């Protein structure tokens, strides 16, 4: 496959002023007619005196029926069919192109372009799916005004597309015809079409300037009672964007559709967002707190794209983080404002530290703005999304809330209606604030996770505290040497009484140090004693900080740091140190013993009535095996597993009484509300329950059983079932699993959760039950949610069983990836990730992983998606 480079970007030769689409829907035989008003791009580079270049159109899996220009059929001599499109000879700088082609939505299992999901038609065009619908310049810098007519048989009463409906009538042959017109010019990737027998929930929103917007959520009839939370979230998001960014919605209607078969979480098509059912449908009986919160954040995310993505879009796909990094930052702040800020930050940083850091240290490492790709779908990554959001957050930290708002106002005003670059975003931030972010731009171009080595000294004679910061960044593929980053390092200094010291005469207790050199020192004067530094508060930059904290110092920070995030982080460091010692003891054949200070620290967290229960739950949770693995130079999976399981067991044993008290205190019957305070209590209660079940004591397992039987909401029910599945014997766990399925088998979202509980079970035999689950009538290899629940759950969220010593877990994954590649390349290329990191594993396990990856490569012809990931990982 061909590699595309950012440096080769050229403006399009032709622009499309208007796009008129006409669909006649049939499962295997959909007719698409398009009428494009085309003109030569005045901004295109052309050699002087050059004749008009050919018009290049993208097209994949299309059957061309006819092609005409200005009403005349184009003879075969004037165009060429290319492997992935058409090249058409052009005679005039302006013309109307009309194309008729046929497509087959029923057999489209890639879930890109137009496809069928449970009998309903829907589309997914980002990044390059529109070319599977019709021939088109399928690139985001070609923006056009779309009008879309859909003709469908009577069984499809709901026919939707972008913008406003301007026509609805029966055709002469009794079909339904509907036309939509989108007044905003947009790239093809924001096009959407939906047709089905759908029900709708309706509401309205009045914008700040007093315009009334109709809000509609469409879903199959059986899910109609699961839309309320998404609707509430949508209205909150609309209000929030007005208040925080001054951004109003711009059409008279905003529609959301839930679809069962979807590659990603959701898609921000103009005025017609399409959602994975799992990311929009919820009711208290069927969805967990985590799902309620995920829905709020994704509904917000897609809505926020209307400005950060749609009104101002990307010039090319290398700029993906322009809209994704910014929009993730926006949705994270939205969630933080709606819920607990510290807990949201902890969740996001945990994800970054495990999965994004691993990506940055692996074979597919790439900058936030990649400079090449074979398949752009492979670059919808944690680096582009989450690290990209951290980069925007750093700009926010550097400029302050007001400065950042000035920058975003200028950005939206300057580039409204345009397709722009990450550079344009940074430039707007600079221009609005009169600052220079030249060095900061390296965050966009250099891959890898920077490391800060911090050391300190105290000059008692002068009362000066000196922090020395050294930065480095490991080599990544294609980037051996890195230049220093501009890193905002938020610090506070704690005095012996645990209070923040004043850092200046104004009494400031926190400073953002501007780290920009390889080595730099920072002086704090006027201090009476050597303080304890609280470093990288709130995780002010996506870096690793090394500082030689002692156990006592970490315990002190855990108790006293005024920054809640760093309180949690001190606990994580402490646990990490203890787990490292356990791994070492295990490898060297010593008896394992858990540091008593860790136990004491956890006890006082558990008994501290002043802490938010959600924060307590986070603080009681040991770093995941994946996090531990990421932090190792070389991964010894067995030692990680033994150490972590031992520590969990020892904590559960030592704190049994306190855990039980806490559990009993929180175990009360309250009507379910997905509000932060209630979520926090359930989270702590179920964290306690999980620990209690680790002991495998019959009376404690009975607690889980009772909770399972009596739970009035899915959060408590699923948590109890998970504890049984992970810790109870089969005669207790199996009946629970069966009755759960019996009760919920009609509910797709709950069945997905049920699959996930089993595939992530830490008990022996999980691989075998995963194979059985794949034979279950509810499993479909063509449904990404089911694949993610069963195969993904096992490979990504079951460190213990996936890393079993015989390597069968890796072989299984390789087998499934090869099978999936034939159906859905995007999903196959994502699913293969766990075995691409083979180089980091020690001993035979690494070799077995390598062999599994090789077997994928040797299995035959791979899709471009999978080929890119596998070939880059075998190097
Ligand atoms: N913009 C979509 C991404 C869809 C890409 C699929 N290959 C989801 C989002 O970030 O909002
Ligand atoms: Zn997005």
Automatic annotation (TrEMBL):
Pfam families in alphabetical order: DUF3458, DUF3458_C, Peptidase_M1, Peptidase_M1_N
Keywords linked to the UniProt accession: Aminopeptidase, Hydrolase, Metal-binding, Metalloprotease, Protease, Zinc
Boundaries of every Peptidase M1 alanyl aminopeptidase Ig-like fold domain copy: 448-547
Domain named Peptidase M1 alanyl aminopeptidase C-terminal: residues: 552-874
Domain Peptidase M1 membrane alanine aminopeptidase as annotated: residue spans: 230-443
Reaction(s) this enzyme catalyzes, per UniProt: Release of an N-terminal amino acid, Xaa-|-Yaa- from a peptide, amide or arylamide. Xaa is preferably Ala, but may be most amino acids including Pro (slow action). When a terminal hydrophobic residue is followed by a prolyl residue, the two may be released as an intact Xaa-Pro dipeptide
Cofactor names: Zn(2+)
Domain Aminopeptidase N-like N-terminal: 108-190
A GO biological process held by the record: proteolysis
EC number: 3.4.11.2
Record bears the keyword Hydrolase: yes
GO molecular-function term, one example from the UniProt record: alanyl aminopeptidase activity
Matches recorded under PANTHER family: PUROMYCIN-SENSITIVE AMINOPEPTIDASE (PTHR46322:SF1)
Family: Belongs to the peptidase M1 family.
Protein name: Aminopeptidase N
Species in which this protein is naturally found: Microbulbifer rhizosphaerae
């Amino acid at each position: 496959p061909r590699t595309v480079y950012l440096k080769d970007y050229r403006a399009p030769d032709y622009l499309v002023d208007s796009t008129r689409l006409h669909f006649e829907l049939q499962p295997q035989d959909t007719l698409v007619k398009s009428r494009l008003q085309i003109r030569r791009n005045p901004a295109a580079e052309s050699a002087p005196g050059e004749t008009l270049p050919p018009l290049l159109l993208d097209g994949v899996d299309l059957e061309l029926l006819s092609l005409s220009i200005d009403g005349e059929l184009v003879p075969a001599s004037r165009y060429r069919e290319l492997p992935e499109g058409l090249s058409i000879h052009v005679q005039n700088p302006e013309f109307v192109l009309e194309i008729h082609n046929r497509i087959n939505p029923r057999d489209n299992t890639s879930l890109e372009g137009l496809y069928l999901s449970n009998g309903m038609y829907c589309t997914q065009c980002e990044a390059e799916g529109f070319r599977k619908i019709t021939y088109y310049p399928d690139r985001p810098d070609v923006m056009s005004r779309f009008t879309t007519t859909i003709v469908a048989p009577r069984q499809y009463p709901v026919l939707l597309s972008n913008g406003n409906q301007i026509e609805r009538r029966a055709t002469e042959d009794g079909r339904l015809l509907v036309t939509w017109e989108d007044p905003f010019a947009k790239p093809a990737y924001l096009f959407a079409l939906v047709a089905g027998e759908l029900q709708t929930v309706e509401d309205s929103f009045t914008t700040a300037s007093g315009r009334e917007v109709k809000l509609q959520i469409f879903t199959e009839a059986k899910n109609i009672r699961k839309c309320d939370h998404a609707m509430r979230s949508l209205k909150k998001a609309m209000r929030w964007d007005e208040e925080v960014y001054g951004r109003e919605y711009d059409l008279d209607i905003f529609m959301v559709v839930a679809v069962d078969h979807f590659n990603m979480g959701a898609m921000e098509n103009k005025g017609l967002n399409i959602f994975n059912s799992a990311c929009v449908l919820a009711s208290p009986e069927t969805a967990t707190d985590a799902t309620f919160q995920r829905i709020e954040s994704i509904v917000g995310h897609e809505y926020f794209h209307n400005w950060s993505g749609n009104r101002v879009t990307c010039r090319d796909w290398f700029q993906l983080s322009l809209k994704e990094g910014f929009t993730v930052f926006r949705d994270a702040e939205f969630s933080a404002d709606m819920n607990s800020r510290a807990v949201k930050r902890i969740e996001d940083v945990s994800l970054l530290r495990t999965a994004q850091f691993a990506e940055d240290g692996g074979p597919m490492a790439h900058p936030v703005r990649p400079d090449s790709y074979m398949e752009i779908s492979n670059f919808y990554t944690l680096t582009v999304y989450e690290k990209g959001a951290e980069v925007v957050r750093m700009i926010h930290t550097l400029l302050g809330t007001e400065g950042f708002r000035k920058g975003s106002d200028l950005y939206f005003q300057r580039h409204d209606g345009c397709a722009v670059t990450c550079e344009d975003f940074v430039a707007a931030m600079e221009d609005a604030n009169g600052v220079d972010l030249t060095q900061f731009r390296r965050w966009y171009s250099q891959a890898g996770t920077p490391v800060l080595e911090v050391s300190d000294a105290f000059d008692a004679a002068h009362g000066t505290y000196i922090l020395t910061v050294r930065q480095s960044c490991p080599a990544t593929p294609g980037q051996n040497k890195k230049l220093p980053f501009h890193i905002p390092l938020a610090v506070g200094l704690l005095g012996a009484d645990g209070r923040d010291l004043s850092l200046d005469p104004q009494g400031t207790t926190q400073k953002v140090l501007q780290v920009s050199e390889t080595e730099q020192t920072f002086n704090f004067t006027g201090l009476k004693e050597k303080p304890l530094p609280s470093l990288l508060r709130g995780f002010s930059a996506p870096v690793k900080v090394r500082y030689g904290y002692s156990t006592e110092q970490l315990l002190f920070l855990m108790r006293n740091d005024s920054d809640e995030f760093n309180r949690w982080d001190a606990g994580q460091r402490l646990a990490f140190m203890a787990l490292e010692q356990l791994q070492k003891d295990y490898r060297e054949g010593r008896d394992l013993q858990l540091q008593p200070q860790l136990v004491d620290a956890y006890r006082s967290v558990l008994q501290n009535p002043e802490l938010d229960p959600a924060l307590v739950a986070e603080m009681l949770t040991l770093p995941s095996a994946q996090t531990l693995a990421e932090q190792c130079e070389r991964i010894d999976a067995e030692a990680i597993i033994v150490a972590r399981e031992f520590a969990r067991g020892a904590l559960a044993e030592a704190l049994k009484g306190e855990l039980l008290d806490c559990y009993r205190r929180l175990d009360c019957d309250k009507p379910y509300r997905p509000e932060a305070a209630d979520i926090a209590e359930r989270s702590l209660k179920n964290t306690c329950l999980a620990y209690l079940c680790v002991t495998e004591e019959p009376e404690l397992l009975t607690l889980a059983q009772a909770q399972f039987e009596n739970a009035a909401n899915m959060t408590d029910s699923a948590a109890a079932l998970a504890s049984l599945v992970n810790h109870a014997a089969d005669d207790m766990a199996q009946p629970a699993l069966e009755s759960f399925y019996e009760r919920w088998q009609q509910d797709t979202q709950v069945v997905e959760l049920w699959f996930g509980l089993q595939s992530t079970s830490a008990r022996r035999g999980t691989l075998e039950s995963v194979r059985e689950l794949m034979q279950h009538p509810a499993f479909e290899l063509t449904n990404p949610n089911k694949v993610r629940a069963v195969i993904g759950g096992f490979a990504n969220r079951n460190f213990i069983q996936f890393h079993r010593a015989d390597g069968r877990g890796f072989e299984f994954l390789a087998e499934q990836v090869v099978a999936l590649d034939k159906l859905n390349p995007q999903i196959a290329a994502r699913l293969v990730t766990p075995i691409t990191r083979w180089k980091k594993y020690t001993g035979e396990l690494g070799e077995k992983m390598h062999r599994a990856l090789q077997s994928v490569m040797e299995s035959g012809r791979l899709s471009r998606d999978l080929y890119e990931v596998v070939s880059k990982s075998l190097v």
